[in-house]
Amino acid sequence: MDPIAVLKTLWHHKVFVLPVLFLTAFAAVYMYSYAPRSYEALTTYAIVNPKIPSSQEIEKDPALGTLNTDNPYLRSADSSLITQVITTRLNDASTSEALDKAGLATDYKVERPSAAFLVEISAVSDSEDIALDTVRALGTRLEQELQTIQTVNGASDRYLFTSLVVAVPDKATEQFSSRLRSLIVVVVAGLVLTLGAVSVARSVESARERARTERTSSVPTRKGRKKRTGEAVNPEGERAAPSHADTLSELETLVELGVPSPKEELLRQRNAVQGILNADADHRAPNKRTTV
Questions:
Q1: 191, part of any domain
Q2: Residues 180, 157: one domain?
Q3: In a shared domain, residues 66 and 193
Q4: 146, burial (CB in 10 Å: exposed 0-12, middle 13-18, buried 19+)
Q5: 13-51: pLDDT as tens digits
Q6: What CATH number did the domain enclosing 73 receive?
Q7: Where are the membrane-spanning stretches (predicted)?
Q8: In the list 63, 172, 184, 203, which could disulfide-bond 128, CB 3.0-4.6 Å?
Q9: Which neighbouring-strand residues pair with 167?
């Protein structure tokens, strides 16, 4: 598609297109400036292995030997199992319901990055404070869940994994992608409305052209009017010669009035001329006559 042709088409239908473009531009500026913003808060926790007492420590402190060591996650061959369980429990629907009851954001994510003992928590809200409060609440819930899943068999605290805050959630950052998405939606809607405006303009133009054509064809031409009225005009604008019937009518009128017809007048003049010629011939040559 030729861009120049597109611009010419838009300019040709500017009465319909320009209002749509102005409305789209106004909506885009409004959405980018005053649309609801979204803020994201992040925090990262590290899961730390428990410090299991050695044999020497137990010999020095026999009380350590009496502690409950039945932590099921210490017996797992996969050292990242504890982080997988924590991530699953925090992504459970019960966690979302608890946040909703507390008036916090429910748009959050709990993920385990490539590092086996790290847990990343993020929350998104239209308020910076709510995003930060949500992340802190999820961090507190992580510590509670970590304690709960390890003490199912009554394991002592000395044999439990603990959490350590790696990135403190002290500030939420604005997500420009949300405003950008709104802006894209407005621009796409404006393009659709522009195409619709061009279609409407073409329809109106076609309707006007058809009406103009019908109006022109319904008006009779000058030649047609003259044919209907029976008038005939020669190229010089003069009337045509009278017909044979008109000539006979004029002759009858002359007879009724006692006026000689043109033919009789012509014969009379011819006889007079012949008489003059005969007289002249007699004068010159008595035996020779001239006949006209």
A1: yes
A2: no
A3: no
A4: buried
A5: 788 888 888 888 888 888 877 777 889 999 999 999 888
A6: 3.30.70
A7: 15-35, 183-201
A8: 172
A9: 44
